[in-house]
Amino acid sequence: MNTKARRGLSALAIGVTAAIALAACSSGGSSSGGSASDIDSALAKGGTLTYWSWTPSAKAQVAAFEKQYPKVDVKLVNAGTGADQYTKLQNTIKAGSGAPDVAQVEYYAIPQFSLSESLLDLSSYGFDGLESKFAASTWSSVTNGDKVYGLPQDSGPMALFYNKKVFDANGITVPKTWDEYVTAAEKLHQSDPDAYIAADSGDAGFTTSMIAQAGGTPFTTSGDKVTVNLQDEGTEKWTSTWNELVEKKLLAKTVGWTDDWYKQLGNGQIATLITGAWMPGNLEASVADAKGDWRVAPMPTYDGSKAVTANNGGSAEVVMKQTKNPALAAGFLKWLNSSKASTKIFMESGGFPSTTADLESSAFLNEEPEYFGGQKINEVLVDASKSSDNDFTYLPYQVYANSVYADTVGQSYEKGTSLESGLEAWQNALVKYGKQQGFTVSTK
Asked: Is 298 a member of any domain?
């Protein structure tokens, strides 16, 4: 599940040199080569595992697993969230010891750890046969060719969350296009100078998701060859709209996941959120005063016709190559993200599933949460999960990329100037860093 923690990117960068990327010896521990039957034997025999996770459902999931498999002891550790945890993971990789058996890793960070050969390929344990259980977009995030590096935990198809009370009070209809969204932003701010259509102080994950929705593919990787092109057609399509909001000061600069941000979401000063399907639980838990005010609609598009969205956030669980008990770790992970018992707990805690059976469940689709005025919001969110057709890929050093975003693109937000200059600075930083790490980096 994606919570406040998923946005807490550390300023610490995780280095990935080409030498480490090509050398499995840096990871130590086990290699793949087990079988599906080994999992059953390992679960029956039992043992001890360490699991790093920040998801709110983890404690209840671990308890349920240990009840079903009483010979297995899972030590749950919250080692920090997002990049804070990744820095600690990288330290264990460099040291050759200390890594957990199983870890939660966001989709954008998986390429960085798989490239350094720090993750166990789970295909020999039969995980390649689990593809049909998961949404295509999340499955592609945990695989590379015939290798399977984990199982999806949740998904984040984007939608427009909007405050219906604010929209109605200001005569604003739900925008279907980005041009209509800009018009709504102008109308709202003119009516109430303290109100904004959205808050955006600059966020790397949001930027890459918006570029993806516009059809952009700024990052490509083939072996040690990397391309960074933050001037591609999709990127420019997004900036042509978002510049209007930034330069006209129509966006609140309130930093996301802060007390002020939650307050403004509750009192109507921030009228929309363009974010992933994992958001409802956060609103219900942290913006309780706005119960009944919020609704969900499809993400605006550039032409208002075909539905197009993108993914924003989401995590998988992986087995670290250092594990001393790979079959047991694989068994726990398989139960965690593909068993009905576990996904039920995850959904009850507000998580948006990646498993197709849960996404297609009539009970899930027909939920009518009071917080959203009785709207069947999951119908909208599940539809969104079917309308992301951009095969967006991340850099093999995306954790570093996100950590320097504030110093580059973030400055455009701070100064209220064109995003192109910030994106150019970001690109220059990413090209320089990639070359320092031994990659061959081009911009076209």
From this structure: yes
